[in-house]
Amino acid sequence: MGSGAGSLHRSDTKDSVGKDEGAWPRPFRDWLAWVKGEKGIMEFKPTVDFLKILSSPNTSLQYYLQTIIAEVIRVLNADRCSIFFVDDMRKEVWCVGSLDMEPFCQPWDKGIVGMVATEGKMVNLADAHDHPAFDGEIEKKTGYTVKGILSLPVKSVLNLDKAIGVIQVLNKRSSPKGEFSEQDAVELQKLAMVIGDSFYRQRYKALEEVTGHFDSEVQAVLDQHRERMYLSRQQSPAMSTPPEILRSLSRQPFLREHSPLQVEDLASLNFDVLDQAEMFLQELVPDILRHAGCIDNCGIPEKQLMAYPEAVFRGYRKNPFHNAYHGFAVYQMCFHQLSTIDTFSQLTATQGFGLLVAALCHDIDHPGVTNSYLIRLQDDLALRYNDNSVLENHHASVACTLLRDERTAVGSGLAKEEQVVFRKTIIKCILATDMAHHQSCCQRLIGCHSAQDFKATAEEDPQFLMSVCVHAADLSAQALDWEVAKKWEERICQEFLEQAAKEVEMGFTPEPFMQFKMEDMKQRGKLQRDFVDFVLRPLWEPYAQLEPSLDPCLSNLIKNRTLYEVRRIYGSDQMDSMAESDLDLLLPGMPRGEAPQLTPRTVAAIVEGRHAEERAKSKESK
Ligand code: AMP
Ligand code: ZN
């Protein structure tokens, strides 16, 4: 180690928590002192939830790492935190958890991480660049500038001589130069001690068990990886790609510093499912069930609770639109309704549980083509279900098959008669997503003349309430914020085009709404505008009238409709100059010269404002 960096290498200084014995033994004593209730230094006070997540055998590696990263960031006010596993068999360090980097691995003699992994001592550098071991390669790759760096070995009590991992934090947010204090180092050591044993187990599962049991598939991936790594080391001694098993732990955007998410995030209309990793969503499935009270009230067994979301996600195919993301989006949107609309409190716990499970599974094993396509082709599914709600019957059947399987029987904790209600609810809710029932559903909503009327109808016929909920959730993508809505639009268009191409190939004429080109934005704008006018508005308008907490959905829908209209006129989502004739189309009645600087967003805001005024007036007149 160079002399210039020596003074910054605080674990070597006399005040260091590590002192002469190295980084570990003294803090370990401190921890024991804390446990014994002696004068403590703990600022880091692990919550019961945090400890539960660490110690539960059901906590996936990804969730485990996220939880630690969130906690480290919170306690230290760090800008970045990465977690590494040390693989001492292969002399490698694996970056398995990071806020903004894909997993990678590197030889363990590289960089500050390598130094910490091999020497087993903590390093606290005010400016990482001053240290000779600092490897600027990651900085170059990510474009993220490192200033202060605090890097700490993680050890298990089983062997305090050996580092099994490294926690590395970068750039303290509250310090202009980004450096971490001695107190930060102490806090991080405490945290590292608390996680030590669970870290050992998680690392073991991920590295040693997987590579040690010679599972042939995993081994093949690893072998490939070794080869790649060998080559990449020859070309440049940098990073290589880890095997699939670790790649699936891809970086997770954090919605908050704390993970798991709070109930408000999970129930929020602004939860952008498409911005999340699939694995992360899968892990949120039990959280929503927990917040909805299903785990306690319906006795969902722990093992099935974990296995079930995995099976459902695997059940979805990788279509552009009808995939696990859509399944989860509908599930989340049902939870949004359950938590914001009072009328749903009439449902029994079993009904609420059935509704959520139905939402999650409502398009499971969707082949990416429509009912008409399957019927036209006399597909096996169409034959099985006699052309009636072909896909929906199939989704319901797959969902119920999962419930019958002992490993994924989430309803097995219910009493026998409740299990019957549960199954019936699931089937009816999934069948209600068939667009063939759309019109009758809208008409029944329009037929409810007041909120009280709707509540009474729901009380009399709870299945109607649940069917509305899941159907509205299924058609909610365009009632979300524009940035999210347009991503879903792109996906459904892609799926339509794939079906149309198949049909053309077989000599059939695709349905009119599938005849467009992806790059024809005018046509796509028109299709969406019409879809909003003729399909979505007739549902969302009466529904929001009866349940005003859904007003934000209707506002989004109206705004998005205008933005699609802009797209239809201009062939893009930008409008550089507004022709007077277009002004009339977009903002009828707007006096010339009074329109403000027009952008798609200002136009949408004006339309939304007008709409709100109209609604207020119509409420007043009632
Ligand atoms: P589901 O197949 O259960 O998801 O039912 C919803 C149906 O609504 C889809 O099959 C599509 O046909 C239709 N749909 C949903 N979003 C759009 C959209 N943005 N544009 C056109 N059709 C849509
Ligand atoms: Zn759907």
TrEMBL record:
Cofactor annotation comment: Binds 2 divalent metal cations per subunit. Site 1 may preferentially bind zinc ions, while site 2 has a preference for magnesium and/or manganese ions.
Ranges of biased composition (kind: Basic and acidic residues): 9-21
Alphabetized GO MF terms: 3',5'-cyclic-nucleotide phosphodiesterase activity; metal ion binding
EC category name: hydrolase
Binding-site residues, AMP: 322-326, 363, 474, 528
Cofactor dependence: a divalent metal cation
List of residues binding Zn(2+) 2: 363
InterPro entries recorded: GAF (IPR003018), GAF-like_dom_sf (IPR029016), HD/PDEase_dom (IPR003607), PDEase (IPR023088), PDEase_catalytic_dom (IPR002073), PDEase_catalytic_dom_sf (IPR036971), PDEase_CS (IPR023174)
Gene Ontology biological process terms, A to Z: signal transduction
Chain segments carrying region Disordered: 1-21
Active-site residues annotated for this sequence: 322 (proton donor)
Domain (PDEase) ranges: 231-571
EC numbers, comma separated: 3.1.4.-
PANTHER family: CYCLIC NUCLEOTIDE PHOSPHODIESTERASE
Recorded family membership: Belongs to the cyclic nucleotide phosphodiesterase family.
Record's protein name: Phosphodiesterase
UniProt organism field: Symbiodinium necroappetens
Gene designation per UniProt: regA
